Amino acid sequence: METKSHQPLQIFFFPYMGQGYTVPLINISKLFASHGVRTTIITTTLNAPLFSKPIQSSGFDIELLVIKFPCIEVGLPEGIERPNLATTLEMKEKFFKATTLLQPQIDKILDQHRPDCLVADTFFAWATDVAAKFSIPRLIFHGTSFFPMCASLNLLLYQPHKKVSSDSESFVIPNLPDKIKMTRNQLPVFFNQNVETEFTKLVKASIESEKKSYGVIVNSFYELESNYADHYRNVFGRKAWHIGPVSLFNKAAVDEENGCFHWLNFKKPSSVIYICFGSMTNFSDSQLLEIAVGLEASGQEFIWVVKKEKNEKEEWLPKGFEQRMEGKGVIIRGWAPQVAILEHEAIGGFVTHCGWNSILEAVSAGVPMITWPVSAEQFYNEKLVTQILGIGVVVGAQKWSTFEENSVKREAIVQSEAIEKALTRIMVGGEAEKIRSKANALGEMATRAVQVGGSSFSDLNALIEDLRSLRA
Ligand code: UDP
Question: 121 to each of 42, 138, 195, 215, 323, how far by Cα in Å?
Fold first, then answer.
């Protein structure tokens, strides 16, 4: 009879809900599948379609298991299965509560299937104990990189933000390999909140469960942030495997039908700016207007992704903008094929909200960035890009906000002059050339990292071997 040791390794992935989590997770599942691992993704009814199409076209046998999100149980309307669909604070709290109620369903799945490992998002703090019940390791996938993990752990440990007298006074994050300054304004709400909420409970639980988990899978590569990869492992004593950039594994096919590529094909190398703020950030009309004015004033050619349908009254655009910009710029409404756009040789700069996937996709494509952090761990990412790697310039965003706060803000946070200045700085002149050559060098390192024998390729193999040895 065949023993389990001869069967392929089986890993179950349980990502957080939302589009930003879907993209890397599919790439990671494919990556493991390409190394002979049987992979299964667990998600909820509403989120399943985000996975099913890319899985079908992946050419790999990736299984999708669908569970029910307990909306009714916590008093949410049916279908609120992604954090960005919970539009009020009250709904958000209920949403977080609901994520803690998913445990029995995962318990049942693990009991039925007995995989070799459960990879679950950091916010499913309870997953470590559920996996332990079945004697399998739980790995964490944060969707972020080593630098923010080190920065936030040191902040929690040393609390330097409590020793300054105002929200705008800067402090140095203690104990890091580089001298990184921040302000309280730039920290996630969790650091500045004294009342306990469902969210703060969740963050605390996830910090505790991280200590007990088997380790962390990181979508990054060693050469990008080696000091921080070492710091995380050696100073905090945690196990971690860097396996990225996972987007490079999934080389984006250029959709020739898409008009923006046709347009890009006629542009000079590194001459076009790409502007996109990820899947969750929505700017107010007044902020979009400032962007439009800044873009026009800079004279740069651009592709600008705006999450808005076309309608009659476009108050977020200056009068006659689209006509004047004909040939100079393209506005994509809705979802853009970002990876393929960034990889196009005509793209010379990227205005980004500093979501980790976006940053790593730009790094992989060798594209310099203008950093405009908004929420989550994006202010840390800005420091990595501008101060440590030197492959971007800041636009000057100063204050962290939740995605909801941000979308209802009436006033623009960043003015058109600052946008114009940053656009010129990243595209024209000696500083721009220096930044571009650094970005290109990192892009080449990223490609080597995922090739046979590269640092990420080797770490992925090491992780697979490790999981195999646990089985024995
Ligand atoms: N993305 C895309 N098209 C869009 C917006 C986003 O393909 O119009 C992808 C982008 O390439 C990245 C992910 O969605 O892989 C966004 O993740 P990120 O971590 O940058 O930001 P988040 O959406 O989580 O804030």
Answer: 11, 10, 24, 12, 45
The predicted-structure confidence for 322-359, as pLDDT tens digits, reads as follows 999 999 999 999 999 999 999 999 999 999 999 999 99
Atom from ligand 1 closest to the CA of residue 342: 11
183 within ligand 1 shell (Cβ under 6 A): no
The angle formed by the CA atoms of residues 11, 13 and 15, to the nearest 5 degrees, is 170
What's the gap in Å between 355 CA and the centre of ligand 1?
7
CATH node for 259-447: 3.40.50.2000
| Nearest protein Cα to ligand 1, atom 24 | 20
CA of 356 to the centre of ligand 1 (A): 9
Looking at the domain that runs over 4-249+449-471, which CATH code has it been given? 3.40.50.2000
Strand partners, 275: 304, 351
Same fold, 4-249+449-471 and 259-447: yes
Q: Which helix (H) or strand (E) holds 42?
A: strand 38-44
Beta carbon of 305 within 6 Å of any ligand 1 atom? yes
**CA 221 to ligand 1 centroid distance, Å:** 19
Q: Report the mean per-residue pLDDT for the chain.
A: 93
Please report, to the nearest 10 degrees, the dihedral formed by the alpha carbons of residues 386, 389, 392, 396 taken in order: -10
Measured CA distances, 186 to 92, 155, 172 (Å): 21, 12, 13
Quick one: pLDDT at residue 6?
78
**Residue range 286-295, pLDDT digits in tens:** 999 999 999 9
359 CA → ligand 1 middle, Å: 10
CB 385 within 8 A of CB 359: yes
The pair of three-digit structure tokens given for residue 73, joined into one six-digit string = 């149980």
Q: Is the CB of 336 under 6 A from ligand 1?
A: yes
What CA–CA distances, in Å, run from 436 to 338, 340, 348, 442?
19, 19, 8, 10
CA neighbor of 307 nearest in space, from 275, 332, 285? 332
Rounded distance between C-alpha atoms, residue 102 and residue 108, angstroms = 10
Domain residue spans of the chain = 4-249+449-471, 259-447
Tokens of 68: 């029910």
